Amino acid sequence: MIHVDGRTLINFASNDYLGLSFHPAVCMGATGALAESVGSGASRLVSGDDPMLHRLEQKLAAWKGYEACLIVGSGMLANLGLLQALADRHCHCFSDKLNHASLVDGVRLSGAKAHRYTHLDTAQLEQQLQKHAADRRIIVSDGVFSMDGDCADVAELLSLAETYDTLLLIDDAHGTGTVGETGKGLSDMAGVAGHARLIEVGTFGKAFGSYGAFILATHELIEGLKQRQRTMIYSTALPVALIAAAETALAIIEKGNEVKQLQRNLHYFKAATADLAFMPSDTPIQPMMIGSDEKALSMAKSLADHGFFVPAIRPPTVPEGTARLRFTITAAHTEEQIDALIECLRDVL
Ligand SMILES: Cc1ncc(COP(=O)(O)O)c(C=O)c1O
What we know:
- The chain is of the alpha/beta class.
- About 40% of the residues lie in helices and about 20% in strands.
- The chain has helices spanning about 25-35, 50-65, 75-85, 100-110, 120-130, 155-165, 185-190, 220-230, 230-235, 240-255, 255-270, 295-305, 335-349; strands at about 1-5, 5-10, 70, 90-95, 115, 135-140, 165-170, 200-205, 215, 285-290, 310, 310-315, 325-330.
- It has a seven-stranded mixed β-sheet with strand order 3-9-8-7-6-4-5, with helices on both faces. A three-stranded mixed β-sheet has the order 1-2-11.
- Helix 1 (about 25-35) packs antiparallel against helix 10, helix 2 runs parallel beside helix 10 (about 240-255) and helix 3 (about 75-85) packs parallel to helix 4 (about 100-110).
- The two termini are about 25 Å apart.
- The model has no long low-confidence stretch (mean pLDDT about 95).
- Bound molecules: pyridoxal-5'-phosphate.
- Pyridoxal-5'-phosphate binds near residues 100, 142, 146 and 173.
């Protein structure tokens, strides 16, 4: 549920894909830690480096299948800091045109030479890699794309990274906890998690239900980030309540019930809307392309008037002329809620 302008609406917009933001065990985990302290008091390099951070980093690395992990304040801070630490004006970055703003800004702020390829067009990416040789190059892509719900071909990107001797940065903020049988995300599905060229970002703000982010890579790379990642070095560490919440969330995700429920709900939604013009997506992000901003806004308003919160996503978040309704399906939705949404959507259409 979400409260908007004095109304309570059923929320079909949240990235809280597993309903863990209000899961009693996750809330209890945070509350227990809160009883001891609210804030971490300093950055990790000063005095904010709580042992709980290290314990969770080890668990996340083991769960995702990487050598090492670094927890940072948020996904935005993870991507800005990572790119600033890895790239400089001598580096070339190759980015999908629909990458999340945090990756776009990270490339920009790093000062690297930027090359953008058409969304998911690995042939065009390969041409760019052939054309722009440099000592250090990074391919940068969302895993699950946040406004489209489609997925990068991580195996193909990694194969290009190997052929052309580059690093590959995948931000799987939306795939973590949602895609693959066990919710381990796209790198696990592609069987490439833990590869030495692959750096992966996940966040706690989506399927984990709280706030914060983590970076997964080799020991060597993570140790380098601890010395160079300014958004970690010069920013207050996450409060322990959030670390405790994320640790509990991870245990719940590993048990698998919520992930399975999410996948059942998604399957139910997709089967019931197969005749409607949704954009192709097998992830919990199910957008419907509308086109004009006005029409998307008016449809979102009609849905809200009937009790459903589905935002109209407009430029500059998405390219001009591609305003859309972005539905998200979560484990917390009931079949009755999904049925009611679809019935209303058909009326609005
Ligand atoms: C793909 C992607 N990366 C990064 C972020 C930023 O994460 P955070 O909200 O933790 O800053 C988002 C969030 O909206 C996202 O969709």
